[in-house]
Amino acid sequence: MQLALGPVPYFWPKQHLISFYEAMVDQPLDRIYLGETVCSKRREMRWQDWLDLARFIESKGIQVVLSSLTLIEAESELKQLKRLCKQDEFLVEANDMGAINQLSEMDKNFVTGPAINIYNARSLRLLQKRGLKRWTMPVELSKTSLSDTLAQAQVLSSAALPETEVFAFGQLPLAYSARCFTARQRNLAKDNCGFCCIETPQGVNVSSQDGEPLFTLNGIQTLSAKTYDLSTEVDSLIDLNVQSLRISPMVSGTAEAIAKFRHCIDGEQADAVAPTIPLMDVSDTNLVCNGYWYGEPGMNLNSQSSLR
Question: What is the model's pTM?
């Protein structure tokens, strides 16, 4: 099973981002996704910067995939998308149907991120005919949904299935909106936001009226407040023939999460790597969740385990 590092969802300064990836190339990763997926106004990294970074990572023996924006709202964003899709150096992760249409028309293979709503076998096989080589299951789906989809897809066609990747660790990407919630929280207009999300490198926490962690505001994106952690589910993921697990970058603890999952994949206990930050403490129900995997509310922490 492979380990993949998803695109950074937050707005980090350019040098911070480059330093982060310089550290990540020393981790036991098979694939790294690069690119701005949330807001096109985040321009610390230019197109050439992303390409230079991608070439550096690839030189270290790690596959690079360039990720597209999730919500296309302007002509300028469409032009950026076309440029991304036209390049032939790196595989593209399509995060909206516009990207899929572009790549399909160019007769190019592509992969999809968790924002693409592949909820059933027919959708999976249809996109496969258009060039889909690997899909990331939408985060709100369960183990049962995944199992049923893969089984039904095999009934629909005898062709080999696209590779399956599952979001296994990080703050869950829940929703996207035309409105920027980080700017609104500061009483700023979206068009005059002052790029304020760069001041909150892991988003703005939102709690319920009872004080329970609920969401994290990240510009136009809403993330979970809790950290999704499927490290206790590696066995069941292997049994389902999932080929890749995705770890979403965080301000701290990303390297520890990678080590934790690598140990699980290699057959060791999830707690064989001592947690070094609170986000890694699966005993704290205020910080960790895995409910979606069990068909429960996403913020739940189910204590079931399928560890070897």
Answer: 0.93
